[in-house]
C-alpha cells in the first residue's frame, strides 16, 4: 500500500478495472459500416416488407389517403371530359352517316338501300369507337402514371396497395369494369361511390377492393 510519508514508493493500481485508453476496449463494439444501426428498414410507404401498416397515413409514415371530396371532384371532371369526348365522336359519326345518305338521295331523290346500310354501319362504328376511347381514357393514363386527367387536376392518384406503384392495365381495366358492373346493381353505383367514407383502414371504394388499389394524394 502506498504511504505518503515514505518517499520513492511506486504507485500501485487499485482493485478497479482500468479505464479504456489507447489500444484498450471501451465496451461492446458499436455498430459501424455494414452493421445494423436501428430498427429494420421499411419498404414501400413505410411498411415492413409485405404490406401497408394498418394505420391512417400521415402520422410519420405512409401515404396520405385522398379525401372523399377530392375523389368526387376527380370523378366529376373525368365524367365531363369523357362525355364531351364521346359526344364529339358520335356527332362526327352521325354527320358522316348523314352525308352518305344525303349524297345518295341527291341523285335519285331517295336514298339507296346501300347508302342507308352504310350510314348505319358508320354510326355504329363511331359509337363503338366512343366506347373504346372512354375505356382507354380510364385505363392507359392510370396504368402509366396512376392518374386520369381529372385526378391530376385535383392532385390525387391510384396505386396498388401492396406495392405503392400504379396498377397494371389489367388491374385498371378490372377497376373500371367493376364500376360499370356496380351500375347494374340497384343503388350499386351510389354505394360504391360512398364506400370510402366509412371504409377502414384504407378508404377504399368497392372497385378499389376488387383489384387491390388505393387512392392517395399525389
Automatic annotation (TrEMBL):
Keywords noted in UniProt: Cell membrane, Membrane, Transmembrane, Transmembrane helix
InterPro entries: Pra-immunoreactive, RDD
Listed transmembrane segments: 80-104, 116-139
Glycosyltransferase recorded as keyword: no
Annotated spans, Disordered: 1-49
GO cellular component: plasma membrane
Bilayer disposition of the protein: Multi-pass membrane protein
Major subcellular location class: membrane
Composition skew (Gly residues), residue ranges: 20-49
Residues in RDD domain copies: 65-211
Location relative to the cell: Cell membrane
Record protein name field: Putative RDD family membrane protein YckC
Organism of this sequence: Murinocardiopsis flavida
Amino acid at each position: 500500500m502506498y504511504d505518503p510519508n515514505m518517499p520513492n514508493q511506486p504507485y500501485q493500481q487499485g482493485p478497479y478495472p482500468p479505464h479504456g485508453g489507447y489500444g484498450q476496449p471501451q465496451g461492446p463494439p458499436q455498430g459501424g459500416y455494414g452493421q445494423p444501426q436501428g430498427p429494420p428498414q421499411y419498404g414501400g410507404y413505410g411498411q415492413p416488407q409485405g404490406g401497408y401498416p394498418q394505420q391512417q397515413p400521415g402520422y410519420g409514415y405512409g401515404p396520405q389517403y385522398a379525401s372523399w371530396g377530392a375523389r368526387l371532384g376527380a370523378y366529376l371532371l373525368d365524367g365531363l371530359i369523357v362525355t364531351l369526348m364521346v359526344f364529339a365522336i358520335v356527332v362526327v359519326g352521325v354527320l358522316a352517316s348523314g352525308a352518305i345518305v344525303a349524297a345518295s338521295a341527291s341523285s335519285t331523290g331517295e336514298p339507296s338501300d346501300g347508302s342507308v346500310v352504310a350510314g348505319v354501319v358508320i354510326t355504329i362504328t363511331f359509337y363503338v369507337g366512343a366506347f373504346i376511347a372512354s375505356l382507354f381514357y380510364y385505363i392507359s393514363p392510370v396504368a402509366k402514371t396512376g392518374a386520369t386527367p381529372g385526378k391530376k387536376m385535383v392532385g390525387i392518384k391510384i396505386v396498388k396497395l401492396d406495392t405503392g406503384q400504379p396498377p397494371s392495365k389489367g388491374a385498371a381495366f378490372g377497376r373500371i369494369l367493376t364500376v360499370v358492373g356496380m351500375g347494374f346493381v340497384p343503388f350499386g353505383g351510389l354505394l360504391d361511390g360512398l364506400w370510402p367514407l366509412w371504409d377502414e383502414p384504407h378508404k377504399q371504394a368497392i372497385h378499389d377492393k376488387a383489384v387491390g388499389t388505393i387512392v392517395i394524394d399525389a
